[in-house]
């Protein structure tokens, strides 16, 4: 699309544009039904992900952890910002409109925050005992959660995100573990195959570190985008799929 760059479309999907900018984007999308449909689908996926993970990711972080994180140098260099020459630009002050594949600003902060959240959980198997490697089958507690829990439900360290049909007809489900990792599993016969696994990442916003539902791993979003056929299942659709054992 010539008139709108991708960063502006992502900002529009996040609701980060001003009313005037959003109106100009909508005017251009009106002439491109396919791109408009893609943007609507992205908004739906983002909404389901936020609903699925919001309560896990939006807890306030203790001040002593924030102070400790700020004292550590970033583990990775900051991503260079490339400004596209387009008539519509995403507002520079809206941090949550950052491109979803941007690297985390501080790995140290992620480790500290993850450790704090882990301490708050009841004693259960460690994530390594729950999470199979990518390309392997889920087992034990994770497999049981994928079979039984609905979107937004949490049992112990496992919380379900969204559920959808993939292009090949399989059911796929996103999940988070212990506020440290997120993943995607798809039904394969009687098993759940792990399709993607990625650590949850912190975001710096207004000089504060916080965990936000808009900072889900780019790898997970890409895996969902590559597989989802149509819209994510609503509550009734999930219950129906569960009753059929996700077949």
Automatic annotation (TrEMBL):
Membrane topology of this protein: Single-pass membrane protein
Protein name according to UniProt: Anti-sigma factor
Keywords: Membrane, Transmembrane, Transmembrane helix
Gene3D superfamilies found in the cross-reference section: Anti-sigma factor, zinc-finger domain (1.10.10.1320)
Keyword Transmembrane helix: yes
Database matches in InterPro entries: Anti-sigma-K/W_factor, Anti_sigma_zinc_sf
Primary site of residence: membrane
Gene Ontology MF terms: sigma factor antagonist activity
Subcellular compartments: Membrane
An example Gene Ontology CC term for this record: membrane
Gene Ontology terms describing biological process: regulation of translation
PANTHER family reported for this sequence: ANTI-SIGMA-K FACTOR RSKA
Coiled-coil segments on the chain, per record: none
Superkingdom per UniProt: Bacteria
């Amino acid at each position: 699309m010539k008139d709108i760059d991708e960063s502006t479309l992502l900002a529009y999907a996040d609701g980060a544009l001003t009313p005037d900018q959003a109106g100009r984007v909508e005017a251009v999308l009106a002439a491109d039904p396919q791109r408009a449909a893609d943007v609507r689908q992205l908004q739906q996926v983002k909404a389901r992900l936020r609903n699925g993970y919001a309560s896990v990711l939006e807890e306030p972080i203790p001040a002593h952890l924030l102070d400790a994180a700020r004292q550590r140098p970033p583990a990775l260099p900051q991503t260079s910002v490339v400004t596209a020459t387009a008539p519509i630009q995403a507002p520079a002050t809206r941090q949550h409109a950052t491109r979803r594949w941007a690297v985390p600003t501080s790995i140290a902060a992620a480790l500290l925050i993850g450790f704090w959240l882990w301490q708050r959980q009841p004693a259960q198997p460690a994530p390594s005992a729950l999470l199979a490697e990518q390309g392997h089958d889920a087992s034990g507690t994770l497999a049981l959660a994928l079979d039984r829990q609905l979107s937004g439900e949490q049992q112990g360290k496992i919380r379900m995100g969204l559920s959808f049909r993939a292009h090949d007809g399989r059911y796929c489900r996103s999940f988070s573990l212990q506020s440290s990792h997120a993943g995607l599993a798809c039904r394969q016969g009687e098993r759940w195959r792990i399709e993607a696994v990625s650590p949850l990442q912190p975001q710096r916003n207004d000089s504060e570190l916080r965990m936000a539902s808009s900072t889900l791993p780019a790898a997970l979003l890409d895996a969902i985008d590559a597989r989802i056929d149509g819209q994510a299942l609503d509550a009734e659709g999930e219950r129906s799929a569960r009753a059929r054992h996700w077949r």
